[in-house]
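Whether sequence alone determines local backbone shape is best considered at the level of individual chains. When preparing material for the folding task, we compiled for one chain both its residues and its backbone structure tokens. The sequence in question and its structure tokens are set out directly beneath this paragraph.
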Amino acid sequence: MGSRVLFVAAEALPLAKTGGLGDVVSALAVALGARGVEVNLLLPAYPQALDEARGLRQIGQFDQLAGGSGQLLHGCMPDSDLPVTLLRMDQLYGRAGNPYQDENGVEFSDNAVRFAALCQAAALISDGQSRLEAPHIVHAHDWHAGLTPLYMRRFGPAALPSLITIHNLAFQGNFPIEVAKAIDVDSEYLGSDGVEFWGQLSFLKAGIRYADRITTVSYSYAEEILTPEFGCGLEGLLSARRDRLSAVPNGIDTLLWDPSRDPLIAAPFDANDMKGKLTCKRALQQTFGLQIDPFAPILGLGSRLTTQKMGDVACEALDELLRENTRLQIAVLGTGDADLENRFRELANRYPARAGVIIGYDEKTAHGLHAGADMLLHGSRFEPFGLTPVYAMRYGTVPIASRVGGLIDTIVDRGSAEEPADHASGFLFDGDAVGAMVDVVRRALVAFETPRIWRALQQTGMRGDYGWDTSAERYVALYRSMTEDHPDGSFKVPLKEFAPVQKTQALTAKKRA
């Protein structure tokens, strides 16, 4: 009998994606599968998921979930043999829009019920109440799956071990406490020692409070969330459970994000032969309506256009930079707050052929942005990991990013011209002032003018190890440590010793700065 893990998530590429969560859930599941772990993804049956999953067949029905009855459909992901189970409740998931909002960007009013039903189904599967083989571990991802450990507690000592991964602490799934009855959360859990959070019911707090283990997605972020600055009000609970908290850094799919074989970009290239990047640069200029100029520095920005991602700061900083540097070009791809979207459109109107803005997102344009830009701007007021700068580095696009969270762990700042750092891969800046962002881009533009320096930055980034191998091994070790004392949960996959998180040198250096 193999070792089985049930992933519970709201997103998994390509069935559902609004951000990095979908990328991470799918890529981690595949990496674990390569190590002998049988991962089954449990997702809501969104219309796109029903259309794209392969070989779906009904394997069960739950009649008393929040929101009504639901069918379990089991099949495979469209691009792999990765098993996926969809919870079909058309009354909850059969809607236009994305997993959380309607087509007008308005949050669904019954999101508490929608994701409570998913958590209840996960708990019932873990208890063997379906035709699926019961897992050894239940791994919940982010707030959408946060009630799963609480529902599993109802099975008493027989409950399987559970783990929750915090992908972004700022999104907590907080709802009016009155929703408890509709989602079958007993009164014993509603106090401040349970799921109550400032008068509301918090899905994420439930996961942190009742899961056996907690992970987050970078070393620096694991330390930051224990502080009032980044803890989003949950730092006290996280500190109380610090012995249960570990960091397992994200990785990326290095086959999907590989410029030497990427079918979505204009020409292939690698760290040893960069000629194809010039072809990609020309294609990017055409896509964004920029002047064709192989020597103009192109600054890309591919992000959610929100205040978390410093969209407000970037609008002002880019305006100043475009005024003072007439060679600079910018390419912006993203969607988010309506006001920020309009401000970026206005920026493009002020600088025709030098500023191109596409409001929206698609994979081909995103890959083209990373392949064709010279540098990537990634401001963020907090950042659990930061996948986008890692994608950029894979494509020889030098990141310019905030010195927070996972960005500290993946990007080595070049430092000053007088004292450049060894193995530098990009540029980091502190705070959220427009002047700080402008200054760091200026630093990058100076380095861009010296091909030897720029080439070294590109090659360091392109040759970094960003895959899932090490992190998948850490998860295998963590799963085994969780199941050693459980009568039916012994994990049968070879592993390296699991090491608890230690204070990182990067974060210590940040605190000294």
About this structure: The chain has two domains: 3-251+469-506, 275-462. Confidence is low (pLDDT under 50) at residues 493-513.
